[in-house]
């Protein structure tokens, strides 16, 4: 089953979603969101993986060597920066929720529906 | 919804997602296979443009537009931290000098290690930014190191010392101008890998400092008005 | 080069403002931002006049590069975005206690991101700019961070939308693995005739993020929370254009990349299911609201649902109708938010019952609500009417019923607000201050630095103009819209004509029913519908569970 590794990102995404849904703490929920996001890194990198190939950096190897797909790595790099910044932004909002509402438990936050 | 209802909905959704992922995985080409058409096409371009680090060539040359979006996301979230974590009407900000925040009573050995590590870490950051076209690394990774480096001052000294060496307006302007330079480079002059790495390093470094500064303020200085 | 300049302009000025805003006087910041967006509108107008163009960025060609695709639909949409952004900036001239120039920077980034999102011809880039758009939107929602509801709404918005975007990225990864391509057109070429299950799953995942943005039911929960708390100029952009971009992205992804792979029948069924659910649920929730901004937010869900039905019919006339509808709705809805902002500014509340009869002297804002209600109902010759007529024409009887119901409910709610607040109609209900509602929801700060003695024209004129534009858009000859949609859909057809007997009749019927809904709402008691309120709980765990369930439903509908 050479497809088996592709199930790992699916599993990570599900774990992240389960974490957000059952979370009792918004900081935990935001971190679970980054867990869910790491599924995308794993998927992209496993898509680009090639057996017996090395990193796509030609400063010390011949350009004829087999290398793994550099494109998914570039995409992952972009994705990581996106993930880090989104996490920072959501944590900033969480800080303010904690200050204004005095709790970070989603169950204790009053509904926004008047 | 009740926690129970929530779990029922999740069980339905989760099962469906699991099935969808399995169906998707079955249709993918075998793990570790050799077919990477797009990736293969980028390789000769990178070599021809003398950017041995193919990932840098993609990020700053062949697909520089992606990175443009990403730099702006970074800038936007740093600005968001400034605006969301500002001191609002019902709060006041203590002067940093009022309390000696941070581990002011640290061991001399720790203090010394921090001060010794600071130049080394900064140098490492600069090295990683500068060699981004050649070896793994580049503006993002180097920028994070640069931005984190000055927080060694906080770990080995105190908050006022950190606050003195990072005037917020300067870092704000630096971050924004670097992002602006990147926009112009990416749209008009893509392929200037070294210059683009440098501005990205500057932007990431400034954004890290700025965002952390806002979190520090909230944690250490901002109090509800009494 | 003109496209690169158009994309680069708002971003560059945004960075300049972010760098120097601390030291610039407010007038200069306002002027610079407004001029930039005006210049962008001119540039996009030039591009639109020049016809279809594709530009490969950085001089890299088909193989590895990224294209900007300016067809008439994408450029027209970018132009709509820009016009609404211009109006939002003018409204905000006298609006805010400004933190440096960050509000203007964010609005410019938002405008640029939306333009880049519609113009890019690359799937991964559409994820990147989707995220840029989203991050800026979270920041703008949470702008007034001293309000507890604001930060809570922004956080829900952020978590749900980001998760949706990650689903999209998973789908992009799958498509990349299968095809080795990222360009919309290149993927379409590779996937042509590939009917495997895996491609369908990838399509479902990619669309998830876009459907979250488009607030299709059950992905819609974040929208009302975010719209109810965001500053008024931001609501104009959210409801007027941002949400609609999700529908555009679904249409584009399917028609350009997946049309040859995923069977049209399955796509039709699933999009119409999601769209109808949103149109109906949004309409019902809209009538149940007393918080005016929240009411308008639910009406957006309903109307975007209709838009999704228009796209889901996968018929050239319906798509032309959707384009018309989008533009008309953008004008009307953005204008209505200007009216709501005027109320908030005067009375520091947007609660319909608290405002009973207090708007009698506000003639301009009242006119906005009356005309806006007409626009939502689809009074001929509004853009919403023309678009809806075409969608109903190609969809048959049940789409007609759906369209009339959704318009009547949403417009009825707006007209009820107009009657109660601006005409003083209906019995007053002053003693209804429920103890469960602390003043935070009912009493809002006026969003301005200090209370203005009277409303400046800049806070009303854009609303009047936008509503009028929306109301007259149906007069644009159908040929223009038909031609614009043709290259986008590859479905040639005769120029669509909304001026049919059925079209006019359904518009008139919706207007009459809307008044009936309004009067019924004034006289009779609005049902409590506790179950529906409980579903929209503000609990982020609920929203995420529903998101997962929505993806499953989407998959089921596509695969069976």
UniProtKB/TrEMBL annotation, chain A:
PANTHER family: ANTIPORTER SUBUNIT MNHC2-RELATED. It is found in: Cell membrane. The lineage of its organism: Bacteria, Bacillati, Actinomycetota, Actinomycetes, Streptosporangiales. The chain crosses the membrane at residues 6-23, 30-51, 71-93. Keywords: Cell membrane, Membrane, Transmembrane, Transmembrane helix. It comes from Actinoallomurus bryophytorum. This is Multicomponent Na+:H+ antiporter subunit C. Coiled coil: none annotated. Gene3D superfamilies: 1.10.287.3510. It is a multi-pass membrane protein. Belongs to the CPA3 antiporters (TC 2.A.63) subunit C family. It comes from the Bacteria. One of its GO terms (cellular component) is plasma membrane.
UniProtKB/TrEMBL annotation, chain B:
It is found in: Cell membrane. One of its GO terms (cellular component) is plasma membrane. Keywords: Cell membrane, Membrane, Transmembrane, Transmembrane helix. It comes from the Bacteria. The keyword Zinc-finger does not apply. The chain crosses the membrane at residues 7-28, 72-88, 109-134, 140-157, 169-189, 195-216. It is a multi-pass membrane protein. Residues 110-191 form the Na+/H+ antiporter MnhB subunit-related protein domain. The keyword Ribonucleoprotein does not apply. PANTHER family: NA(+)/H(+) ANTIPORTER SUBUNIT B, NA(+)_H(+) ANTIPORTER SUBUNIT B. Belongs to the CPA3 antiporters (TC 2.A.63) subunit B family. This is Multisubunit sodium/proton antiporter MrpB subunit.
UniProtKB/TrEMBL annotation, chain C:
It comes from the Bacteria. It is found in: Cell membrane; Membrane. It is a multi-pass membrane protein. One of its GO terms (cellular component) is plasma membrane. The chain crosses the membrane at residues 6-24, 31-57, 77-96, 101-120, 126-143, 155-177, 197-222, 234-255, 267-288, 295-315, 321-344, 364-386, 398-419, 460-481, 501-522, 543-559. Keywords: Cell membrane, Membrane, Transmembrane, Transmembrane helix. Its main location: membrane. Residues 121-408 form the NADH:quinone oxidoreductase/Mrp antiporter transmembrane domain. InterPro entries: CPA3_Na-H_Antiporter_D (IPR050586), ND/Mrp_TM (IPR001750). Belongs to the CPA3 antiporters (TC 2.A.63) subunit D family. This is Multisubunit sodium/proton antiporter MrpD subunit. It comes from Actinoallomurus bryophytorum.
């Amino acid at each position: 089953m050479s497809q088996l590794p592709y199930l790992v990102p699916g599993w990570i995404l599900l774990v992240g979603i389960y974490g957000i849904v059952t979370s009792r703490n918004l900081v935990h929920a935001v971190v679970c969101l980054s867990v869910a996001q790491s599924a995308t890194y794993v998927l992209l990198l496993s898509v680009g993986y090639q057996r017996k190939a090395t990193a796509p950096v030609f400063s010390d190897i011949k350009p004829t060597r087999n290398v793994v797909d550099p494109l998914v790595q570039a995409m992952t790099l972009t994705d990581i920066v996106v993930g880090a910044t989104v996490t920072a932004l959501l944590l900033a909002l969480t800080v303010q929720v904690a200050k204004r509402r005095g709790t970070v438990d989603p169950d204790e936050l009053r509904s926004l529906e008047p | 919804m009740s926690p129970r209802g929530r779990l029922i909905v999740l069980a339905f959704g989760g099962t469906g997602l699991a099935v969808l992922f399995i169906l998707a995985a079955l249709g993918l080409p075998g793990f570790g296979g050799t077919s990477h058409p797009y990736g293969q096409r980028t390789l000769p371009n990178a070599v021809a443009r003398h950017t041995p680090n193919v990932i840098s060539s993609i990020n700053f040359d062949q697909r520089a537009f992606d990175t443009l979006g990403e730099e702006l996301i970074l800038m936007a979230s740093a600005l968001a931290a400034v605006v969301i974590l500002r001191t609002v009407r019902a709060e006041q900000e203590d002067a940093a000098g009022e309390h000696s925040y941070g581990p002011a009573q640290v061991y001399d050995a720790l203090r010394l290690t921090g001060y010794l590590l600071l130049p080394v870490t900064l140098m490492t950051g600069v090295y990683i930014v500068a060699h981004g076209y050649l070896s793994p690394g580049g503006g993002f990774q180097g920028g994070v190191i640069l931005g984190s480096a000055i927080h060694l001052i906080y770990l080995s000294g105190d908050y006022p010392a950190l606050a003195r060496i990072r005037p917020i307006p300067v870092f704000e302007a630096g971050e924004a101008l670097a992002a602006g330079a990147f926009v112009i480079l990416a749209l008009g002059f893509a392929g200037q890998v070294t210059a683009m790495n440098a501005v990205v390093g500057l932007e990431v470094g400034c954004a890290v400092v700025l965002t952390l500064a806002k979190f520090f303020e909230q944690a250490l200085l901002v109090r509800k008005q009494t | 080069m003109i496209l690169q300049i158009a994309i680069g302009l708002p971003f560059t000025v945004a960075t300049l403002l972010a760098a120097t805003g601390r030291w610039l006087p407010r007038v200069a910041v306002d002027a610079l931002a407004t001029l930039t967006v005006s210049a962008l509108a001119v540039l996009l107008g030039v591009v639109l006049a020049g016809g279809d163009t594709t530009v490969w960025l950085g001089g890299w060609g088909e193989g590895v590069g990224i294209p900007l695709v300016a067809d008439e639909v994408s450029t027209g949409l970018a132009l709509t975005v820009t016009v609404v952004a211009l109006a939002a900036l003018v409204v905000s001239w006298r609006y805010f206690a400004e933190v440096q120039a960050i509000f203007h920077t964010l609005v410019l980034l938002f405008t640029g991101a939306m333009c880049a999102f519609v113009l890019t011809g690359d799937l991964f880039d559409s994820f990147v700019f989707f995220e840029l758009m989203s991050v800026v939107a979270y920041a703008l929602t949470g702008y007034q961070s001293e309000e507890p509801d604001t930060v809570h709404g922004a956080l829900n918005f952020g978590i749900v939308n980001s998760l949706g975007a990650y689903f999209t990225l998973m789908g992009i990864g799958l498509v990349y693995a299968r095809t080795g391509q990222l360009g919309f057109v290149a993927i379409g070429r590779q996937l042509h005739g590939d009917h495997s299950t895996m491609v369908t799953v990838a399509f479902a995942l990619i669309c998830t993020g876009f459907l979250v943005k488009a607030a299709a039911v059950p992905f819609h929960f974040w929208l009302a929370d975010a719209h109810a708390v965001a500053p008024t100029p931001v609501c104009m952009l959210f409801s007027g254009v941002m949400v609609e971009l999700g529908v555009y992205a679904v249409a584009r992804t399917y028609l350009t990349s997946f049309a040859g792979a995923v069977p049209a029948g399955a796509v039709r069924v699933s999009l119409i299911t999601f769209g109808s659910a949103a149109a109906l649920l949004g309409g019902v929730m809209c009538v149940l609201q007393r918080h005016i901004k929240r009411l308008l937010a639910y009406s957006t869900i309903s109307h975007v649902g209709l838009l999704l039905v228009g796209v889901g019919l996968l018929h050239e006339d319906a798509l032309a109708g959707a384009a018309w509808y989008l533009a008309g709705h953008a004008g009307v809805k953005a204008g209505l938010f200007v009216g709501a902002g005027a109320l908030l500014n005067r009375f520091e509340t947007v609660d319909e019952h608290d405002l009973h009869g207090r708007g009698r002297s506000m003639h301009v804002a009242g006119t906005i609500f009356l005309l806006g209600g007409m626009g939502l109902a689809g009074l001929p010759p509004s853009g919403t009417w023309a678009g809806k007529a075409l969608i109903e024409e190609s969809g048959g009887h049940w789409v007609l019923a759906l369209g009339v119901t959704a318009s009547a409910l949403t417009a009825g709610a707006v007209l009820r607000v107009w009657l109660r607040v601006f005409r003083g109609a209906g019995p007053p209900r002053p003693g209804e201050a429920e103890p469960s509602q602390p003043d935070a929801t009912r009493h809002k700060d006026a969003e301005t630095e200090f209370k203005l003695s009277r409303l400046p024209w800049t806070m009303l004129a854009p609303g009047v103009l936008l509503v009028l534009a929306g109301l007259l858009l149906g007069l644009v000859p159908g040929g223009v819209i038909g031609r614009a949609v043709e290259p986008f859909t590859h479905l040639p057809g005769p120029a669509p004509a909304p001026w049919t007997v059925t079209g006019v009749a359904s518009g008139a019927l919706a207007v009459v029913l809307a008044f009936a809904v309004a009067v019924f709402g004034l006289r009779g008691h609005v049902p409590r519908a506790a179950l529906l309120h409980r579903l929209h709980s503000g609990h982020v765990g609920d929203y995420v569970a529903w998101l997962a369930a929505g993806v499953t439903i989407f998959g089921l509908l596509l695969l069976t």
